[in-house]
Amino acid sequence: MHFWVPTKLKPGQPTLILIPGFGGSSLWQFFIQVWHLSRRVNLYVPDLLFFGNSYSDETVRSDDFQARCIVEGMKKLGENRFNVAGISYGGYVTYKIGEMYPNEVEKIVIVSSGICYTEEQKNEHLEKLGKSPKDFLVPQNPQDLRHLLDFSMYRANWLKMLPGFFLQHAIDAVLKENGKQKKEILEYLINREPVPEHGNLSRETLIIWGDRDSVFPVKYAYELQRHLEPIAKVQVINGAGHALNFDAPIAMNNHIISFLQN
């Protein structure tokens, strides 16, 4: 399990694990946020298994396994108490960390992660994508990647305007690696059972969402809040889509910092 870690710890500042979504490495996903966020917290940023520099010989593809590997990595780094935040697929892993490690976790932040859904909602959501999630989230050509960016982002138009050769390089260098394992992760996620009716997290939770999220509409934020009552609150960022790490990175950071320091 590969982590980006603080060069020097800040005494008295909260410790935060920031977990990326399904995509490239954590550095690619959070490059806008890291400098700003790391000035206010002791920041640890893992690459999820089969993304970036993290890998495993195990055949397990569950978010439970991702959660266990991250926490075991943190303990090897000497961190036994921490806050955890995750975006999109990273939100599923964050939820699992909160569920599996209540004694280690202090506060939880879940961003743009449609954790609460019915079977009917899941099928409706898959139909809206217009293609298999495995094809949608593991693009093979610039056209597919542009479709993914267009669906995920509302403000960050500059990413959609990158030339095709640059997008193809990103696909070849970042997204195609471990393609089989990434598709197996998606297969597990699609077929997993819905979460129980009543949440089993015990730590205060902040839910952050973009009001223009096309992947998981903002109603999923409030469904998750109801699922976790009374320990959860929702913060909606106006004019932002699913990928808040690109659409509204500083606003997302500020909400996280305020929540952790209060």
Automatic annotation (TrEMBL):
Domain AB hydrolase-1 positions: 14-249
Record Pfam families: Abhydrolase_1
Sections of the chain in a coiled coil: none
Protein name: AB hydrolase-1 domain-containing protein
UniProt source species: Acacia crassicarpa (northern wattle)
